[in-house]
User: Fold this.
Amino acid sequence: MTLRNASGRSRASGLVVAAGAALLLSGCATTNPKDPFEKFNRAMFTFNDAVDRAALKPAATAYKKVTPGFVQTGVHNFFGNLTDLWSSLNNFAQFKGQDGFSDLTRFAVNSTLGLAGVLDIASPAGLRKHNEDLGQTLGYWGVPSGPYLMLPILGPSTVRDTAALPGDWWGDLWTHVDDIPWRNSGIALRAVDQRASVLDASTLLDEAALDRYEFLRDGFLQRRQSQVLDTDKAQQRADKVQERIDKVQEKLGVKKPETPNDGADDAAAPAEAAPADAPAGAAPAGTVPTEAAPPNNPPVPSPATPAPVTQ
Assistant:
């Protein structure tokens, strides 16, 4: 059984090496620095798209229509649970201790109380899932991603992630199953399950994108960079640091600096009312009196004088 496992991994590594050799032979120059192998990548994209339309997408559509929802959830949870152990090791390699313990605890809880991962008990308990792989670990330690690659069958990748694939395959617990029919059936089932989870997204891509290859490439590279740099967690870390600073300042009795808008309310406050005993029409306190205006009354006609009497 061990020899069979080794031979399977060697064939997978051979696929990666063959793809790399084809890239070197293609060697086409292009104006896009992120995609120097665009000619080869577009050819692989066309090949993958043909395989998807002929086999994978119909199988995923039938799987989603026929299989009950709770069975689909159980399959998704089972294979997702197997990735938590490898994810925890990569978190520890990136000095993300909290995330590493979270994924390790998830794997332990779901593998036991969750019936080998079929039930996801850890998520409702507050243990968030993290998806870390060897490619992200290499990126954390400064290994550049390299050019974009479209691998046959496997899909979008980069030079760095392609070099990390053998390690990720070794870290996948399902690849260590000795029974070859079971192992291959599980690999096929997981591929169909993953394809079924993105059916709606692929339909949107077909309808919205003018150049599907370019749309997929740019989206993948942006998402991959975000995963390596953890940009989705940057704001959370900044908020936590600010909370700690505020707590320390509160304990030390340090007042927060006033912001420029602090005096806006005082400037907009209404003028003080005049005292109650002030005469009517008096100006409010603190104002400069002005010359009184004449009363707005209609003019009163003068009395008529009698005309003198003449004799």
